[in-house]
Design goal:
With about 280 residues, this protein is an alpha+beta fold. The chain has five helices and 13 strands. The chain has helices spanning about 10-25, 30-35, 165-170, 230-250, 250-265, and strands at about 50-60, 70-85, 105, 110-120, 120-125, 130-135, 135-145, 150, 155-160, 180-185, 195-200, 210-215, 220-230. It has a six-stranded antiparallel beta sheet. One of its GO terms (biological process) is regulation of DNA-templated transcription.
């Protein structure tokens, strides 16, 4: 007869610490939230949101066995500007499927990083057609470390990737660099008061990437910089996860799901979306 395995008190304590750490990443608002990580109310961002994407691709083109660049450095730069009003559509609002939460978390010595999809919400028109009311995003969260395996959840910084910005990330090659800029007041006279910049670049020695977030608040006279190194495997997971989630944050999965229902002639229960369960908006502190 095989005896039943038992856990030691040390193993139980370690498991409880891991659960507490995960809950802090999901909802770092207060100790009360740890008892119920989904209890906090919805806090929509009512500010106008604007973003600038400065996407740079740099490649060394080499011919010959000596590895010397024969065609020099090819630099392609693509810059786009987009202004999005939260009154109609917002890529940085909370969103999720009721009762579910999933994060990909990377812990490093100086900071922790997590990414999770924030699904879009839909509204029903008088015609009966459902359209996207608030767009989805991939929410990146950066949390600085204050000690060994300790992180300051109160100083976490958020950066919401729109579908186009997700495309910039997943299309990166091994020698490419990507820079993304966000300014909530870019299209107004208050432009530049608060500015975020996300930089993704390969390690100079190869074998991984560095993702850095800079947040400049000219109102509070503060500047925060958080940098997280990624191994090749960790960055591959981020890219694959973003690639898989892309049609979902665009709401296309709901469209194809409807088509499949019609074609198969069977009914499946609709998924209920609750934008208040998963993440804070990027600008709501």
């Amino acid at each position: 007869m095989v005896g039943e395995a038992t856990r030691t008190s040390e193993e139980e304590e370690e498991e409880e610490e891991e659960e507490e750490t995960l809950l802090k990443l999901i909802s770092p608002l207060s100790s009360k939230i740890l008892q119920n990580p989904f209890a906090h109310p919805l806090r929509d961002d009512e500010e106008a949101f604007s973003s600038t994407v400065n996407f740079k691709i740099s490649r060394n083109i080499t011919n010959g066995k000596d590895g010397n660049p024969s065609n020099g450095l090819l630099l392609r730069t693509f810059t786009s500007h987009a202004g999005i009003s939260t009154s109609g559509q917002n890529i940085n609002v909370k969103g999720g499927i009721a009762g579910f939460s999933a994060l990909y978390i990377v812990y490093k010595g100086k900071a922790a990083f997590s990414v999770t999809p924030v699904l879009p919400t839909f509204t029903k028109l008088d015609s009966g057609l459902h359209v996207v009311d608030r767009g989805g995003c991939m929410m990146l969260k950066f949390t600085p470390a204050i000690g060994e395996r300790k992180y300051d959840w109160e100083k976490r910084q958020l950066f919401a990737l729109s579908p186009t910005e997700v495309g910039s990330l997943i299309s990166l090659g091994p020698n490419d660099t990507c820079e993304l800029f966000h300014d909530p007041s870019m299209l107004s006279s208050n432009a530049g008061q608060v500015r975020k910049s996300l930089t993704v670049k390969p390690h100079s020695t190869g074998g991984g990437y560095m993702i850095s977030l800079t947040v400049v608040n000219n109102i509070l006279k503060t500047k925060d910089y958080i940098s997280v190194p990624f191994t090749t495997a960790e960055f591959a997971v981020v890219k694959a996860a973003c690639s898989y989630a892309l049609p979902h944050i665009m709401g296309w999965d709901r469209v194809t799901e409807k088509v499949e229902k019609v074609n198969s002639g069977r009914r499946t229960p609709d998924i209920k979306f609750d934008r208040g369960q998963l993440m804070d908006s990027e600008w709501d502190k």
